[in-house]
């Protein structure tokens, strides 16, 4: 069986994260963005970048306006949610698109599949480490 084990240690928190890279990795489970999903962590870390703040503020304003408009004419009132990268990531549905074609892990070569896993781990860890320091 072909498997890599990556250990990434944060010296600030003395926490060790262990990531398994395997040919048997079920990437379709990553696309479901469950709580232990590396893809979910990578998306949240990317959306937490300062370049997305203005966009999140615009979406927040639009949801507030929508709730106010609805509340004017209904007895049931809506409360607007505070949209964060985490709440937004739980609303979206990611897909793997390469060369304008939607793909799954079975469409990738072994090398591309391993590189995809390593890239996700890199995105999930490097950005969060830089943000926490």
Features:
17% strand, 5 helices, 48% helix, two-stranded antiparallel sheet, 133 residues, alpha+beta
Topology of this protein?
Elements: E1 3-10, E2 15-22, H1 27-30, H2 38-47, H3 53-72, H4 85-91, E3 96-98, E4 101-103, H5 110-132
Helix pairs in contact: 2-4, 2-5
Describe this structure in words.
With 133 residues, the protein is α+β, with helices and mostly antiparallel strands. 48% of the residues lie in helices and 17% in strands. The chain has helices at residues 27-30, 38-47, 53-72, 85-91, 110-132; strands spanning 3-10, 15-22, 96-98, 101-103. A two-stranded antiparallel ribbon has the order 1-2. Strand 3 (96-98) and strand 4 form a beta hairpin. Helix 2 packs across helix 4 (85-91) and helix 2 (38-47) packs across helix 5. The two termini are 37 Å apart.
DSSP strand (E) fraction?
Answer: 15-25%
| SS field, number of helical segments | 5
Radius of gyration from CA coordinates: 19 Å
**Mean pLDDT across all amino acids:** 79
Helix content: 40-55%
Order of the strands making up the biggest sheet = 1-2
Shape: elongated
How many E-type strands?
Answer: 4
H-E order: EEHHHHEEH
- The poorly predicted ranges are none
Largest sheet data: 2 strands, antiparallel
A few lines on this structure:
With 133 residues, this protein is α+β, with helices and mostly antiparallel strands. The protein has 5 helices and 4 strands. The strands form 2 sheets. It has a two-stranded antiparallel sheet with strand order 1-2. Strands 3-4 form a two-stranded antiparallel sheet.
